[in-house]
Amino acid sequence: MAENQSLMQVTDKVLSPDRVITGARLSEGEYKLLYQQSIQDPEGFWGRIASEELVWEKKWDQVLEWNYPNYRWFTNARMNITVNCLDRHVQAGKRHNLAYIWVGEDGQEKKISYGELLDRVCRLGNALRAMGIKKGDTVTIYMPLMLEQMVAMLACARIGAVHSVVYGGFSAPALRLRIEAAQSRVVITSSWTRRRGKKINLKSVVDEAIDGLSVVEKVIVAQREGDDYELLPNEVDFQDVLRAYPKTCVPESMDSEDPLFILYTSGTTGKPKGVLHTCGGYNVFTHYTAKYVFDLHEDDLFWCTADPGWVTGHSYIVYGPLSNGATSLMSEGSPDYPDPSRWWKLVERFGVNVFYTAPTAVRMFMKHGEKYCEQADLSSLRILGSVGEPINPEAWQWYHKNIGKGRCTIVDTWWQTETGGHMITTLPSVMQKPGKAGLPMFGIEPMVVDKSGNPVPANTVGHLVIKKPWPSALRTCWGESERFEQYWNSMPGFYYAGDLATCDEDGYFMILGRADDVLSVSGHRIGTAEVESALVSHPSVAEAAVIGKPHDVKGESIKGFVILKTGHNPSDSLKDNIRTHIRRELGALAMPDELEFVDGLPKTRSGKIMRRVLKAKELGMPLGDTSTLEE
Ligand code: WT7
């Protein structure tokens, strides 16, 4: 906490408030007025937005039905999110407007219009129906960042199937776990992706993941240039499938509360949880936040650098921008390959207006130096976004000066897989306080409270909670409703976010990081519990504990403490072997940077590992309260 306090002081001292953008949809005064309205009468507010912004097959009986801890938005309304994302734009004469521009790592470019996207979504939707996939069935998608991935997600939504996208960096066991938990009969994948010039085989990961898994009946493979292997009997080619089915597909009539997707994310304990989002509320909230936070207009080119394997991609590559009829850019491969000017050259080449990335990427570019972004004309940029972890003042300054050229506003957006969309962020025309995510979105009432749920004074560190449900709040954890209830029971009456925060006299929130044992490594959420259980699954490991250490680019790096089983001796080669084991079990993103062999671990008398103590020791900080520490 001492660290957090000093970060706060630095922020207030070094950075003066900043106000840059003019001409955004809402002025500061309008934001404040609308926000007041949204809090005084959330149902009136969201009902109006839902009516004005989206098309519905049938309107709702009630905007919000709240039986704590469960809530339903737009009850008994009927709709299909793909109609809002595709059909209505096509019907409005925008068939030829671009939905996406895709760039491969080798520079190859593909563009797809709203009309073409709708056609493909319908073809695949028909194909899935022909494979026996019905409303409510799950489909797992394990693909690189390619247009077929958006088609796959939307095709599921078209027919009411629940997609579960698994990030392409996860290993076979991690993918298997998610396919099994979701019970997907169909998996959609691609043959390979490219990273740093190297082809990475994805299909073989799927092969391994589903080996002996009887639930999976069919695998749809988006084959890519140069593929020449024979499809297995359970496999079909993505393009063949598209050709075989018609380009019209009646959208499934969905109840507002029918499941739209599940997305597995890490928690403090146990296996990842399948966060469930439903159709109506999620559509309303992602549409509205994309429109106002990014000030998105139809002729804007938006670039969210995330991958749809994470919620950022779901909400701000797929559903939010499409619902607004905007054009998005996406680029497969590494940001600094072949060199760190790659992204900036793309901004110039396509004239990107709104750019949304993670602090870890900013810090990486910072390290490479200004010369790379100076090679490109960045004058098309208007708004810059940040997401995934707190953006430290140095990175904020660098982003603002070198990418935004002092002209662009920076929207620092705090939200979570569970929240579905932006919760705290200062709108482009509202006064920004660098280093603070800032003010709440419409309808959102965040608070900072102590352990017992009492509000803490201004500028005091506490737990971030949200007062009431909002339209895109998670509805449950797939098959594990008790894990869902924990969000609303940990601090009775509130949604408990699991983050530490402060709020200043002006109501600006600053997010300081997780309060629990969840790590953020390069903006990717990783549970210490998952890494620990992967560590102890290694034959020579008896016990293990994992902590996050501050890292200048990744935000946090993983350090594991390992007790070996008797008869196993510490060595560097054993360390490498254990790290490789983690990569195999979970994926490269969870591989510890450091391992240390130890004889014991600090535990409470009841036997819980005190990671806090390990971390304080590691960082040379005061140990804090150790009264529960076992001697
Ligand atoms: C956790 C959620 C939301 C999409 C990406 C991550 C951290 C997220 C910020 C921000 C400070 C942030 C929080 C949160 N986080 N955005 N702007 N400032 N911290 O989604 O994997 O569900 O992780 O990311 O700790 O709880 P996620």
Radius of gyration over all CA atoms, rounded:
24 Å
Uncertain stretches of 5 or more adjacent residues: 1-20
Question: Strand order, biggest sheet?
Answer: 12-11-8-6-7-14-15-23
Helix content, binned percent:
25-40%
What is bound: which ligands?
Answer: 5'-O-[(S)-butoxy(hydroxy)phosphoryl]adenosine
- Our measurement of the CA-to-CA distance between the termini, rounded to an integer number of angstroms, reads 25 Å
Task: Determine the strand fraction and express it as a percent band.
Answer: 15-25%
* CATH-defined fold name of the domain at 111-260: Rossmann fold
The biggest beta sheet reads: 8 strands, mixed
* Average pLDDT over all residues: 93
| Shape estimate | globular
CATH class of the domain at 111-260: Alpha Beta
Structural class: alpha/beta
CATH architecture of the domain at 111-260: 3-Layer(aba) Sandwich
Number of helices: 18
Q: Can you count the beta strands? A: 30
